[in-house]
């Protein structure tokens, strides 16, 4: 592709505009799940598909329905599924109130889309208590899956939709893996929330931003020119 200043400006604009916007709805009054979300989900997934990756996912991850070589898997819940998930959390919370801890339930009450994104670790070579082996190959698998997440976020931003990358909270618990049909060998990299455009201005929700947004410092605080000549 020839140098194209317009393309650079477009990409720059979207990257700088992306920010954490957590839309928090009341658990007793979730947002309506009346948008048609299949097309939006599809177009965001198509952006995730083009993330770079170095090595294929281990063959043990490629036996089932989701058998791609890419080292990530994405489980998509549309608004109505998010509301069903919320009802499930409420019912589980009768026995274990932790299911309604923190912000995750309120985010699920507001989301139009929830992408539960996993990455696919290489099988451990030795018995260990750790979540995964900290080697270079696993590092690259996480890096690739992270790129896929960023593509989702940038796509949502370009569509002017509030979005948020959460670690997952209670959505990391094994019961949720079972409930959503996620293989236990996968590791959740994040719960990616996309909210309706109009939710930013609804009186009935709270909007929260990311704690670290303005604490990045300047370029000189994390980059330096290497002078070799
Ligand atoms: C891997 C990852 C996990 C994150 N998990 C959380 C989280 O659990 N809770 C939270 O408040 N923010 C979480 N964030 C969002 C960051 O706090 C946010 O990106 C940061 O404050 C910078 O703000 P910005 O996204 O507006 O630039 C996460 C971000 C990443 C990359």
Please provide a written account of the structure.
The protein is 34% helix and 15% strand. 31% of the residues are buried. It has helices at residues 5-17, 38-48, 79-93, 104-108, 136-158, 174-180, 219-222; strands spanning 21-24, 72-78, 113-119, 163-166, 187-194, 206-209. It is globular, with a radius of gyration of 19 Å. The chain has a single domain (20-198), classed as 3-Layer(aba) Sandwich (NADH Oxidase). It is of the alpha+beta class and 229 residues long. The protein starts with a helix and ends in a 7-residue tail after the last helix. Strands 2-3-5-4 form a 4-stranded antiparallel beta sheet. A two-stranded antiparallel sheet has the order 1-6. It has 7 helices and 6 strands, in the order αβαβααβαβαββα. It binds flavin mononucleotide. Flavin mononucleotide is lined by residues 19-20, 165-167, 190, 209-213.
CATH class: Alpha Beta
Per DSSP E runs of 2 or more residues, the count of β-strands stands at 6
- The radius of gyration over CA amounts to 19 Å
Shape: globular
Ends apart, CA distance between termini: 31 Å
Q: Kindly report the average pLDDT value.
A: 97
What is the CATH superfamily classification?
NADH Oxidase
Q: List the secondary-structure elements in sequence, H or E.
A: HEHEHHEHEHEEH
* Largest sheet composition: 4 strands, antiparallel
Tally of discrete structural domains: 1
Helix content: 25-40%
Count of DSSP H/I helices: 7
Uncertain spans: none
CATH architecture: 3-Layer(aba) Sandwich
Beta-strand content: 5-15%
Bound molecules: flavin mononucleotide
CATH topology: NADH Oxidase
């Amino acid at each position: 592709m020839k140098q194209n200043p317009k393309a650079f400006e477009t990409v720059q604009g979207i990257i700088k505009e992306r920010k954490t916007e957590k839309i928090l709805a009341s658990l007793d009054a979730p947002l309506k799940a009346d948008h048609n979300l299949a097309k939006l989900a599809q177009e965001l997934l198509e952006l995730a598909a083009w993330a770079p990756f170095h090595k294929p996912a281990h063959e043990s991850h490629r036996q089932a329905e989701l058998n791609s070589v890419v080292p990530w898997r994405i489980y998509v819940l549309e608004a109505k599924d998010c509301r069903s998930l919320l009802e499930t959390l409420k019912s589980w919370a009768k026995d274990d109130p932790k299911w309604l801890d923190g912000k995750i339930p309120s985010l699920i009450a507001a989301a139009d889309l929830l992408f539960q994104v996993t990455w696919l670790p290489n099988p451990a070579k030795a018995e260990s208590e750790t979540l995964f082996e900290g080697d270079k190959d696993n590092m690259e698998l996480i890096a690739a899956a992270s790129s896929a997440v960023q593509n989702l976020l940038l796509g949502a931003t370009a569509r002017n939709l509030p979005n948020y990358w959460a670690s997952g909270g209670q959505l990391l618990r094994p019961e949720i893996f079972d409930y959503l049909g996620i293989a236990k060998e996968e590791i959740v990299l994040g719960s990616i929330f996309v909210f309706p455009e109009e939710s930013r201005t609804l009186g009935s929700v709270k909007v929260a931003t990311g704690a670290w947004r303005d604490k990045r410092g300047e370029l000189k605080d994390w980059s330096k020119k290497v002078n070799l000549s």
